[in-house]
Amino acid sequence: MPDPAIAVRAGFLNVKDAAAYLGISPQTLYVWRHRRQGPPSFRMGPRGRVMYRRTALDAWIHEQERADSRSNPALNPLSAAPQQRRNPGA
């Protein structure tokens, strides 16, 4: 069985190692891939194994953080200035 640390150093992870890297189950990655969600993946080699680039996983994680209002103050509705009501008759 290949050492996952070698795969991480090489920059490519299979589904099992990518799931462990993200802290989720391999099944979740399969579902995301089927729904065209989640981090980008590709098929590699003669058997067409699904693989993930570690750099793509890191970029995807960063994208998720930026899109989440809890970790991005610019998206937090509580950070926005209160809106003024318009007077439709004026």
Automatic annotation (TrEMBL):
Residues 63-90 are annotated as: Disordered. It comes from the Bacteria. Residues 12-64 form the Helix-turn-helix domain. Residues 81-90 have a biased composition (Polar residues). InterPro entries: DNA-bd_dom_put_sf, HTH_17, WH-like_DNA-bd_sf. The lineage of its organism: Bacteria, Bacillati, Actinomycetota, Actinomycetes, Kitasatosporales. SUPFAM superfamilies: Putative DNA-binding domain. This is Helix-turn-helix domain-containing protein.
